[in-house]
Amino acid sequence: MKPALQRLLSDYGMVFVLLLLCALFSAMTLTEQNPTGEAAARQLAGELSKSSHVLIAVRPQADDILFARQLQQALTAAGAQVIVVTGEPHDAREALQKLAAANTPLDAIAANQATASWLVFADIPTDFPALGHPRIVKPRSYRWPNFLKSENLLNIANQIAVIAIIAIGMTIVIITAGIDLSVGSLIALSAVLAARLIRDDAGAVHASAVGMTVACLAAIVLCGLVGIFSGTMITLFRIPPFIVTLAMMLVGSGLAYLLAQGQSIYQLPDSFVWLGRGADLLHIPNAVLLMFILYVLAHVLMSRMRLGRYLYAVGGNREAARLSGVPVRRVLLFAYAASGLLAGLGGVIMASQLKSGSPTYGNMYELYIIAAVVVGGTSLSGGEGRMFGTLVGAFTIAVIQNGMNLTNVESYTQKVVLGLVILAAVLLDTLRHRGWNRGASAE
Fold this sequence. Notes:
Shape: elongated
């Protein structure tokens, strides 16, 4: 039972932690919810289905206008006469006065939580006797966690997409017992280069889809070449990965500032946001769909292909892998090239989300990416780790940040908490290996 429990905790321990965090923040953000928009309209349409004269009072806001439009359509289809008032209390009073002057009885007043409390509706039988005794109907409230709102969950996934995608490459690198500190700067370099090529060579705000695609591919390829250069320095000259990628972090950041001339680039077409903000399938953001596709491909690579076994072998024992016939140099070049390419893709996605390119993008992202990989169970000593764990680690960090934002934890405290989470993950990994080694020695 003990080995089975150890394996279960090793494989799915962070999943349990993630679920516990979701349960914790759900309990902490449980609040009274007031339906708006289409949901509120559907609820009131059923309650007012037998009313013949209805006044709908809303404020001039997007959700309220949508609520009024949907409710008006539903009630009109049921044969009711509907008057919509959009504005302030004095607008509602004018509408009530007109109805009273025409001796039009009123069966109900449909309102939301804000307009239902207007004083003009407080004593209608006394102020407007001709209207009768209309009832004020508003959507029923319910208790639900803000954390579990569908828009918040999609927001978590969309915000973590860039970090999670780049974490795929970082996982590959760390499995080979390396590290890549340049990914944050490559985000900025990719975003700036793509934005500048679109602005200067593809037609700026009038750029075509082909022009934007070529610009983005060029930015991704450049970041891949930076990764290949880092891998070459590491394999050919045996320079420690920490030093090489630290140097390339500075080079990438400097190039981003040079290309952008220290300014943000905003002259991009509206269609450029398709990848970062679009949601074409079941309202799921395109960046999130791309993230899941890449994780499936990465899982297949690491678990079903020879190259994946080579990556684990190099990280476990480089010399033994070389003696076994593993092409160590090519494997390491692939690892750093993949990390660079994915960092470039992350920069393109971020530029698309923000519809701009700036040399400040990706600042400190390398730390969050490494944190996602480590929290997901990948060992910094190499040879151990799973893509599924990295994805869980990325979502764990996103859930912690989002939960702290929803509970109004200040940003400085969030950094402290995140640092302690990373330290705890590394500590647990160290203790786990020591405990297993002792158990193996005892046996």
